[in-house]
Inverse folding.
């Protein structure tokens, strides 16, 4: 199983809403990532978890709150977002052992629209 | 600092013709280079990577890439393009200073015309 799943596929939310994005993998990977991607642009790294601990936070606003409850699951909690946060949010995972050489496997993404 | 450049925003090729999508890199130390493809409204799919060894790397869907150290290039190639290859292609390098970061090029949109 080389699949990363993400739910929901689409999400529309108001600026006062609270919502969560979910990502799951069962490949035994110990590194998991959140990326934000605007249309026709490369993905931008937001957060990296390694062995369920937050390793990298790329100066992301606090209205985005990641959570890694276990080695297979990664959540991104959203609160008080702005319209400019509308984007495709991608989750990825990698083995987490030989980092430089490792392939990242991406989920299909959640398309978020903030009204 | 590590970086990758994809000099072409768009590449157009006729079906059945060979295709090349260009990528150049700048790294300190050994480069760990990747190609990903993204179809509309989808996540990125891994195509191939260069870690060490043979300069010609073979990947998924008939794609290959040639690593050229002297020219610091890692161009993606396919001998015969298909309409279904039309997509957005990203070259990427792993940040060997930290390991977890992947630095993506700006992307090249490939159009294959029937």
């Amino acid at each position: 199983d080389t699949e990363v799943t993400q739910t929901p596929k689409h999400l529309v939310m108001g600026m006062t809403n609270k919502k969560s994005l979910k990502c799951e993998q069962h490949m035994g990977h110990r590194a998991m990532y959140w990326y934000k991607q605007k249309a026709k642009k490369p993905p931008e790294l937001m957060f990296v978890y390694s062995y369920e601990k937050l390793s990298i936070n790329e100066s992301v606003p606090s209205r985005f709150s990641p959570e890694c409850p276990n080695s297979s699951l990664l959540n991104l909690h959203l609160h008080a977002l702005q319209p400019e946060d509308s984007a495709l949010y991608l989750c990825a995972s990698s083995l987490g052992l030989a980092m430089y050489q490792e392939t990242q496997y991406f989920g299909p993404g959640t398309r978020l629209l903030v009204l | 600092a590590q970086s990758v450049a994809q000099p072409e925003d768009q590449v157009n090729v006729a079906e059945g013709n060979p295709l090349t999508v260009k990528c150049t890199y700048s790294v300190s130390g050994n480069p760990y280079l990747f190609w990903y493809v993204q179809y509309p409204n989808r996540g990125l799919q891994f195509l191939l990577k260069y870690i060490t060894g043979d300069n010609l790397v073979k990947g998924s869907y008939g794609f290959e890439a040639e690593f050229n150290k002297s020219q610091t290039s890692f161009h993606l190639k396919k001998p015969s393009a298909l309409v279904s290859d039309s997509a957005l292609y990203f070259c990427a390098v792993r940040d060997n200073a930290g390991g977890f970061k992947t630095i993506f090029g700006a992307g090249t949109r490939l159009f294959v015309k029937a």
Q: What stands out?
A: Residues 61 and 81 of chain A are 10 Å apart (CA to CA). Chain A touches chain B through 28 residues (CB under 8 Å). The radius of gyration of chain A is 13 Å. The first strand of chain A starts at residue 4 and ends at 7.
